[in-house]
Amino acid sequence: MIEFAVADELKVACSHCATIARAKIACLFVPEPGDPTGTLTFIAFEGRTYAVTAGHVIDFFREAAIAEGTDPEGYFLPVAPGLFVHPPFVRPPASWTAPMPDIALRPIPNELPARIGKQAFELRPEPMPAFPIPFALAVGFPTKSKSVHAGTDGTRIALPCVEAAAEGVGSSPESDQVQFFSKLPNRPITESLSGLSGGPTFWSGADSFGLLGFVKQAWDLRPIEGEDAIYAEPRVSFICQRASYDTFGKWAGYADEAFPKERAALNERVAGHEKWL
């Protein structure tokens, strides 16, 4: 396995993302340990700030809300003191650089990440990564790592952030997604990376680094007992949805235009109730 030379600036990579969950009133918005969750990334782009996650995360949340009769509903970031995020998230259209982008995003106030102790990662045109990508760092909050702790001030839920590095499985500047895979020499502390979807993926060298894209899919680090698997040893494996500066610029431009329209349509659906702002 190659040595991962991660830039010092990425030691705070977890500050650029947070757990995203359904805002279910029944549990006062805070997700139960077994509730599916995803990862939300904060991106600063040309003076504006965006909340970004995987498109399938938002699709899954909405399907669950429809099944429970609570659609439309918002989203909650359970980072003290907690933050409610109003819908909608916009799905950018397909393009030649990203035929089926698994991305959902919406513009947010620039000051919003700081309310929960986070900061947006500023996306810049330079530096550019060298292809093929030798390795990448995926960051996010695994669903199965949630745990409940009882304290003097009540019950709290712990949501640990994970940074997972793995080797690239071939890529080119034209790749709209890149897969990463590495065997682990020791038993992993975290058994599953499910829940990293929507989290940032960074390329890095000793002297430069940047955003490669967002986690599209991440797998269990060990085979699940009783299920067929093509691997037996612990390994890190995830797929990144590419997001170059130009590609993200197209997504952001689309979101800036589409978000007000989709929000207005949503407000019409909930007429007579509190509007989504």
Main traits of this protein?
single chain, 277 residues, alpha+beta, six-stranded antiparallel barrel
Report a brief summary of the structure.
The protein is an alpha+beta fold and 277 residues long. It has helices at residues 55-68, 245-269; strands at 17-22, 38-45, 48-53, 75-77, 83-85, 104-108, 121-122, 135-140, 147-151, 154-158, 162-168, 177-183, 200-204, 209-218, 235-242. Strands 1, 2, 3, 4, 5, 6 and 7 form a seven-stranded mixed sheet that branches.
Descriptive account of the structure:
There is one protein chain. With 277 residues, this protein is of the alpha+beta class. Helix content is 14%, strand content 31%. It contains 2 helices and 15 strands. The chain has helices at 55-68, 245-269; strands at 17-22, 38-45, 48-53, 75-77, 83-85, 104-108, 121-122, 135-140, 147-151, 154-158, 162-168, 177-183, 200-204, 209-218, 235-242. Strands 1, 2, 3, 4, 5, 6 and 7 form a 7-stranded mixed β-sheet that branches. Strands 8-11-12-15-14-13 form a 6-stranded antiparallel beta barrel. A two-stranded antiparallel ribbon has the order 9-10.
Give the SSE layout.
Layout lengths: L16 E6 L15 E8 L2 E6 L1 H14 L6 E3 L5 E3 L18 E5 L12 E2 L12 E6 L6 E5 L2 E5 L3 E7 L8 E7 L16 E5 L4 E10 L16 E8 L2 H25 L8
Parallel strand pairs: 2-7
Antiparallel strand pairs: 1-2, 1-4, 2-3, 3-6, 4-5, 8-11, 8-13, 9-10, 11-12, 12-15, 13-14, 14-15
